Amino acid sequence: MGSTRVRIAIDAMGGDHAPGEIVAGALRAKEELGVEILLVGDPQQIEAALPPKTNLAQVEIVPAEEAIAMDEEPLNAVRRKRKASINVAMDLVKQQKADAVFSAGHSGAAMASALLRLGRLPGIDRPAIGTVFPTIVAGKPVLVLDVGANVDCRPKFLEQFAVMGSAYSQYVLGTNEPKVGLLNIGEEDSKGNDAAVRAHQLLRENSQINFIGNAEGRDVLSGHFDVIVCDGFVGNVLLKFAEAVGEVILQILREELPQGLHGQIGSAFLKPNLKRVKQRMDHAEHGGALLLGVAGVCFIGHGSSQAPSIFNAIRMAKEAVDNQVLQRIQSQYILERESG
């Protein structure tokens, strides 16, 4: 690509706060992380979102004629709007003009565009969206996948999610021998429906992962697991519920701690602690979810993402590229097929 620096294609038109917050987060990443940023979208809107006195010669803008709205059917929109910003961004990765892509726009459109333009990794039947949750153990996150790409999953898909998730946990999150769990309604091997029982057997027999058994709902945030696999229906419900619980807890703290004179005094002293609590619970600290299983590094952000989330998503994308996550996942499956 003519550069040793990681190049990230950013869908500048995707998200509730596009392009302003997208551009702000991307410029911060360019400054602090040393990455090259390709801002994809309407040049006029992107330029209007740049800070005053920005040297346009140092900002790479890739024109895109259209954007995909949140209320559009994703697959049809991706096929119909060939010059949409998410498609142009994906094409930059396909053409090896960028190392990774990020979008906070329509997640279904991002996934559809990735599948149509980048394709799946060899040996992977279905991609999975993996997102990082905080746990009760400080500095020890848990990766949960799938959280929305596949409503229904065969046991084989869950096994593939576990292998991909283990690689990501090890090489990007820095976990030594990630402990893998299968989200289920009980700890016993025989718990759950037929698909869960068969998935448990596949995971137990797979020598590439450190499978330690079923994980119940109460175990997700316990810190006992590093990777938890489930189908996208359950995973998406879990994700939305966890985000809501985090927001409720933070709101309760804001409302209740300052109550009364003692509370007001105590709140002043506790302000640094509360800031750390927010950092541990806030999804913005991780920025987005990685679409594992496609032939390119693709991060999907929350539609409500603002500049800090954008920055952190770009940081994680850079780490995924630097640690060659795609190549490591592919080598896992090559070894699996050879040993089989």
Compact summary:
This protein is an alpha/beta fold. The chain contains 11 helices and 11 strands.
Give the helix level as a range of percent. Answer: 40-55%
Please give the largest β-sheet.
11 strands, mixed
**What is the terminal-to-terminal distance?**
36 Å
Order of helices and strands: EHEHEHHEHEEHEHEEHHEEHH
- By DSSP (H or I, 4+ residues per run), the number of helices equals 11
Please provide the count of β strands: 11
Structural class: alpha/beta
Radius of gyration equals: 21 Å
Question: Unreliable segments (pLDDT under 50, ≥5 consecutive)?
Answer: none
Tell the overall outline: globular
Oligomer: single chain
How much β-strand is present in the residues? Answer: 15-25%
Average pLDDT across residues?
A: 87
Main β-sheet, spatial strand arrangement:
3-2-1-4-11-10-5-6-9-7-8
Walk me through this protein's architecture.
- The chain has 340 residues and is α/β, with parallel strands linked by helices.
- 46% of the residues lie in helices and 16% in strands.
- It has helices at 20-33, 43-49, 74-80, 85-94, 107-117, 155-171, 194-205, 232-256, 260-281, 307-322, 325-339; strands spanning 7-11, 36-41, 60-63, 100-103, 128-133, 142-145, 179-183, 210-215, 227-229, 288-292, 297-301.
- An eleven-stranded mixed sheet has the order 3-2-1-4-11-10-5-6-9-7-8, with helices on both faces.
- Helix 1 crosses helix 10 (307-322), helix 6 packs across helix 7 (194-205) and helix 6 (155-171) crosses helix 11 (325-339).
- The radius of gyration is 21 Å and the shape is globular.
- It starts with 6 loop residues before the first strand and ends with a helix.
